[in-house]
Write a structure and sequence with these properties.
The protein has about 70 residues and is an all-alpha fold. The protein has one domain. The longest helix has 14 residues. It is globular, with a radius of gyration of 13 Å. The termini are far apart.
């Protein structure tokens, strides 16, 4: 992996799809959900890892409608 290169949208979506399966068999079934949120914040919001880890729901201003999943 070249740390100087930003992934493209296809690669980002593949990563997000891949990490959803992390932790499904173990004790912590939500680990994949947290990893998806973490990596999505890094890519789509251009946050640094430390910023994404410190992000809380109260820090976000999310619209009630208009989300596409």
């Amino acid at each position: 992996m070249d740390r100087r290169v930003v992934v493209n949208i296809r690669q980002a979506r593949e990563l997000l799809t891949g990490v959803t399966d992390v932790g499904r068999r173990g004790k912590n079934g939500r680990r994949g959900e947290r990893l998806v949120a973490f990596y999505a914040c890094l890519y789509f919001a251009a946050l640094r890892p430390s910023e994404a880890l410190g992000l809380r729901e109260r820090d976000c201003h999310l619209p009630a409608t208009g989300w596409v999943c």
